Amino acid sequence: MKFLGKLMLWLLVALLLVILAFYILLQTRWGARQVSQWVSGHTGYHLVFEAMDHRFSSPSHILLKNVTFGRTGKPATLVAKSVDIGLSSRQLSDLLHVDTILLRDGTLNLSPSTAPFPFEADTLQLSNMAFNSPETGWDLSAQRVTGGVSPWQPAAGNVLGNQAQIQMSAGSMTLNGLPATNVLIQGSIDKGEVTLGTIGADIARGSLSGAARRNADGSWLIDSLQLTDIRMQSDKTLVDFFAPLTTVPSLQINRLEVTDARLQGPDWAVTDLDLSLRNLTLGGGGWQSDDGKLSMNASEFIYGSLHFLDPIINAEFSPQGIALRQFTSRWEGGMIRTSGNWLRSGHALVLDDAAIAGLEYTLPVNWKQLWMDPLPAWLQNVTLQRFTASRNLVIDIDPAFPWQITALDAYGDNLQLAKDGRWGVWAGNATLNGAAATFNRVDVRRPSLKLTANPNTISISELSAFTEKGILEAAAAVSQQPQRQTAINLNGRGVPLNILEQWGWPALPVSGDGNFQLSANGSVQADAPLKPTVNGRLHAVNMDKQEVTQTMTGGVVSTAPVPAAPPVSPQPSP
Question: AsmA domain: from which residue to which, for each copy (predicted)?
Fold first, then answer.
């Protein structure tokens, strides 16, 4: 019995010596290399670490140094200077579930193609780590990350797991091309739903804070978001800048606040922007809201050729449409003001009151083409219930027929300026007059016009202007049909007879001042020449009683003979 007892003792001592030798060898470079080769050769994973460190002062912790881990043949999932593994009694029943894992000074790749971790932890802690997720919907790159995930149960395609609490900070981060610094995130993951209870970051020389949730279907709920002192320059157009908002299935905004922001792109800019938005949902190429509100003001807004100064907008959203409570702005040296409603039914914009004062506006070079282009689907009808204009200067620099009107005043009511997606004057009444005007280098004074429009015809009942020596008066009618048949009667009294030459009528064989009567009609269409459609008759007589009658057929003029002036009889001397 003594022999058996001694044998058992020596075997136990030998076993302890073997374990001690194995324990010592594991903490050498040779032992680390052997373990790495065994894992890489007998599993689907690739593991490399330089050394293992274990101290009896912390018996439940194992420290691996200079670790690289990933699936064989794939990019590394983890590269870290040290991995501190905290063990517990749970390893007796679940060998690969540890108490804590602390990753220091390395990189963690979150790409779905990287290897899922085969082990779990009650808590994953990060210290001065970097994140990369190049192949997910979140193009994320973060540096100097510190924080934790609890519990940590990684799954295929989801390194952070399907259900966990998250608290992290990052020195710098780039998300979908947008850089940020001093980032703080607190939230949770629950089966594809990501809740961010606290978000904070320094972004574009300003700050961001808020709370949000991303649902499993990719839709977002912004519970609150505040942007302060943002200074951002983008290489994208305004449409492309907001394009990411249209790529998500749904974006619900409960509260958005923007304070003192400055944004700039290739053909747009906004400075000193203050914005408050409530209860609006974007999705499906449109928006929905039950009681949404928008308040916005800025020092300057530029979009293409539009340049607004001190714009102010207040609007309310409802299922029926948008109630525009206020829009005011300084524009082109003047002031514009309006209010009204955009109605979802019929995509109609109905402005209750619109006023323009002090404008100095040069029409765009392509304004005629813009007038003919179809309107977007969301804007098919435009109506001005009341319109006023005062002291405006309007200029057209078209070299073929330049014109300008000075001190233009106008009044209109129930003017329908767009119908079924086409600009025009489809209904209503308007009166326009100015202090002076120039039409193709012909100066006139006190031009005035009064028109009435209905679905069939635009009738111009009063059209008059004073020339240097006389007066011009006219009446006209324009058909609303596609052919745009137009008829005009123009009378001139005591005016230079060559005035019509500047407006396209051939030169007359008589000269000087006189009277004329012109009746003409033609088809005014944007895609067809006017001249071949014009038929008319002109009768003119000058101060020397010389008369001429001309007939235009298909744009070609034929002239009746000009009778000689009667001889002047000598007057007897008194």
Answer: 248-538
Measure Cα distances from 490 to 14, 390, 496, 516, 573 in Å.
124, 27, 14, 8, 43
Q: What is the per-residue pLDDT across 486-536, written as a single tens digit (0 to 9) for each?
A: 999 999 999 998 898 888 888 888 888 999 999 999 998 877 888 888 999
Q: Per-residue pLDDT for 459 more than 90? A: yes
Indicate whether 567 belongs to any domain: no
Does residue 487 belong to any structural domain of this protein? yes
The pLDDT value given to residue 311 = 97
In whole angstroms, give the CA distance from residue 258 to residue 256. 7
Q: Say if CB 292 and CB 316 are below 8 A apart.
A: yes
Q: Report d(CA 262, CA 206) in Å as an integer.
A: 10
Q: Is the pLDDT of residue 140 over 50?
A: yes
- Which amino acid, residue 94? D
Dist CA 504 CA 508 (whole Å): 12
**pLDDT tens, residue by residue, 464-487:** 999 988 999 999 999 998 888 999
**Angstrom distance (rounded) from CA 491 to CA 471:** 8
- β 231-233/251-264 pair status: parallel
In the chain, what is the greatest distance between 2 CA atoms, to the nearest angstrom?
A: 178
CA dist 569 and 78 (Å) reads 117
Identify the three-state secondary structure at position 371.
helix
Distances (CA, A) of 452 to 420, 429, 477: 20, 5, 10
The amino acid occupying position 91 is: Q
Is there a domain that residue 127 lies in? yes
Q: Indicate the pLDDT class of residue 96, thresholds 50, 70 and 90.
A: confident
Whole-model pTM? 0.81
* Residue 501 DSSP code: G
Query: Is residue 273 assigned to a domain?
Result: no
Count of domains forming the chain: 2
Helices 2-26 and 29-42: angle between axes, nearest 10 degrees: 90
User: CA angle 535-538-540, nearest 5°?
Assistant: 170
Final residue in a domain of this structure, among 101, 124, 156:
156
By C-alpha distance, which of 250, 242, 191, 255 is closest to 219? 250
**Would you say residue 540 has pLDDT above 60?**
yes
Percent of all residues in the chain with a pLDDT value above 90, rounded to a whole number:
55
Question: Distance between CA atoms of 73 and 46, rounded to whole angstroms?
Answer: 8
Tokens of 146: 């510190």
Q: Map tokens 């961010």 to a residue.
A: 196
Q: Which residue has the tokens 């501190």?
A: 84
**Inter-residue contact 478 to 503 (CB < 8 Å):** no
Query: Which residues constitute the domain of residue 529?
Result: 467-561
- Which tens digit of pLDDT belongs to each residue from 60-83? 778 888 988 888 877 788 899 998
pLDDT for the residue 22: 52
Written in H, E and C, the secondary structure of 282-301 is: EECCEEECCCEEEEEECCEE
pLDDT band at 212 (very low <50, low <70, confident <90, very high): very high
- The two tokens of residue 533 are 């459609």
Q: Can you read off the two tokens belonging to residue 134?
A: 């190049």
**Last residue of a domain, which of 156, 186, 217?**
156
Question: In the 8-state DSSP scheme, what is residue 16?
Answer: H
Backbone angle region of 428, left / alpha / beta, with phi > 0 → left and psi within -120 to 50 → alpha: left
